[in-house]
Each structure stands twice: as C-alpha cells, then as structure tokens.
Amino acid sequence: LVGSQIAPGTYQTPGTTTEFGGAWYRLSGTTGDYSEIIAIESVKGPATMTVLPTDHAVKFVGAGITWTKIS
Fold first, then answer.
1. CA 21, CA 69: separation in Å to the nearest integer?
2. How far apart are CA 37 and CA 52, in angstroms?
C-alpha cells in the first residue's frame, strides 16, 4: 500500500536476472478488479516507474527483479 508499505517516488530496476520478464501495476484499489489498474508496464530490461501519492497500491510481479528508489 502506498504510504505505509511503499513510499511515493521514482523507482528503477536494471531488469530481470532470469529469462522471464515481469511487470509493475499502479492501482487505485486492491480488490483485484481490472478497473483498478491505473497503469501497467512489462519489464525485461532496465526500467523506471513512478509511484504517485494518489496511488492506492503498487504491485510488482516477476522473479529476479529488484527495484530501487532513486528519488
């Protein structure tokens, strides 16, 4: 959850350490309803994403992907 489990800001990853990619989701809620997806992007190589203070939650999927807060 944004604010209590992850801080708003910009995050970066060098990509996955496995042959499989991953994805990130910015969410307006946590019921699992498709309409709660604000933004989604697939990740295999280097990537940057921004968590906004207005986001309710963020979901990261994929093995071997490490995200670091850069601002």
1. 20
2. 13
